[in-house]
Amino acid sequence: MPAKTLRLQIIKPMDTTWDVLGELLRDLRYNSAKICNRVIQLCYENENIRKMHKELYGETPKDKDIYGMSFQGWLYQKIRDEFPEIASTIISQTIQYAYKRWRTDKKDILSLKQSIPSFKLDTPISIYNQSYRIENDGDNWTITTNLLPAQKEKQYKYTLLIHSGDNSKITILKRLIDGEYKQGAMQIVQDRKKKWYCLITYSFETKAEKELDDTKIMGVDMGIVNAVYWAFNDSLQRGKIEGGEIEQFRKQIQRRREELQRAIKWAGDSRHGHGVKRALKPIEALREKERNARNMINHKYAKTIVEAAYRHGCGVIQIEDLSGINEEETFLKNWSYFDLQEKIIYKAEEKGIQVIKINPEYTSQRCSECGYINKENRKTQAEFKCISCGYEALADYNAARNIAIQNIEKIIEEELKKQEARVS
Ligand SMILES: [Zn+2]
Fold first, then answer.
1. N or C, which terminus of the chain has less Cβ within 10 Å?
2. Same domain, yes or no, for 54 and 182?
3. Structural domain harbouring 346
4. Gap from CA of 67 to ligand 1 centroid (Å)
5. pTM over 0.85
């Protein structure tokens, strides 16, 4: 996540005078510099203690052996005790600011290439990201922040009217309020003309838009042995969803249905007339359960398929147009293909992938290697063997490869004509 900074001038405090705020900010800046210098000093001492310990005992000590806790934890407690009049959120952020500087310069300082940094009156006042709030009331943009430790009967929160600047700055501010951008720490600084500014750091996710190629096609076969099988037109890579889950679920539902039907029959036969109505209720519940499970499994499958296409950089997914399907032929009989396909289309669109439905006729009989079409190419339901070129493959994979071909319907049509002409 790249971090950026937004610089906004403070126009005036909303709930006090500039005199009061100015004095408070100057005081905080002075103390921030003092905290930073103290942090660097303690870091330097820590380094020396560790070095001495190593010389004495031959091994680098753990923080816990020296401080009874992590060095950073100890540092925070120490500074907080030394600066009780500073808000703890400013303390922790200021320590971070100085510590970061120490980490960068440490090597050069210890090898005497650089002197220990010293913080002066231009040190920023650092404010933790959770302890300030940006607000907009029509034309006014304000920042409310804790500048003093919370105390009863004493003001510790200050609202600052800020100059929002141009439209691009306003856009950023709006996104910070919406939470679209992540609000980072804030610094308050003064420029040479004695004007005060808020520097807000923010970051956002960069959705690395993957390059999708429209000539790269994934073919998805609703398979026979496997629930789903996919292949690509430009590589030998492939993938599948076995669908054991569906099979298992279907059996379970079937068993339950039979049980219920027996129960209904029994209730109907009995002389207690209310039996049937009561026995029907579990059937409704079973239908509901079936719908929910189907929905969940299809979501999962659609996601898996679309993600595989996306990873491969496919701009197009080709699926079978199953409106004229012969139910006997497929694994997913009774299962809702249409629901699965709809979910694939929906999820693909989100990623910018186009879904094309193709007529699946002959895609399971065509040899994806040489193009020859013949019923005899299907040795069994599961196996494909081309009687023309001898190509052998899993039937589901061969079909998926055909489905992945651009203009496959036209290619099949022409091949059939060619083969017919040869025969006659
Ligand atoms: Zn062949």
1. C
2. yes
3. 213-242+302-423
4. 75
5. no
320 is catalytic: yes
pLDDT-derived band at 243, boundaries 50, 70, 90: confident
Non-local CB neighbours of 311 within 8 Å, separated by 6+ positions = none
Give 321 Cα–ligand 1 centroid separation in angstroms. 24
Residue closest to 187 by CA, chosen among 5, 36, 24, 37:
5
Q: Does residue 221 carry a catalytic annotation? A: yes
pLDDT (tens digit per residue) in 13-51: 998 999 999 999 999 999 999 999 999 999 999 999 999
**DSSP state at residue 221:** E
Is residue 266 assigned to a domain? no
Does any domain span residue 296?
no
> Active site includes 122?
no
Tokens 């929905």 found at: 295
Report CA(388)–ligand 1 centroid distance (Å). 5
Question: Is residue 34 in a domain?
Answer: yes
**Mean pLDDT computed over 65-74:** 92
The one catalytic residue in 108, 135, 137, 221 is 221
Q: Counting Cβ atoms within 10 Å, is residue 316 exposed (0-12), middle (13-18) or buried (19+)?
A: buried
CA of 106 to the centre of ligand 1 (A): 69
pLDDT digits (tens, 9 = 90+) for 262-315: 877 777 665 555 666 666 677 788 888 888 888 888 889 999 999 999 999 999
Contact yes or no for 32/188 (Cβ under 8 A): no
Does residue 224 register a pLDDT over 70? no
The one catalytic residue in 205, 234, 269, 320 is 320
Check whether residue 185 and residue 134 sit in a common domain.
yes
| Same structural domain, 364 and 237 | yes
Based on the fold, state whether residues 232 and 127 are members of the same structural domain. Answer: no
- Domain count of the chain? 2
Quick one: CA torsion of 82, 85, 89, 90, rounded to 10 degrees? -80
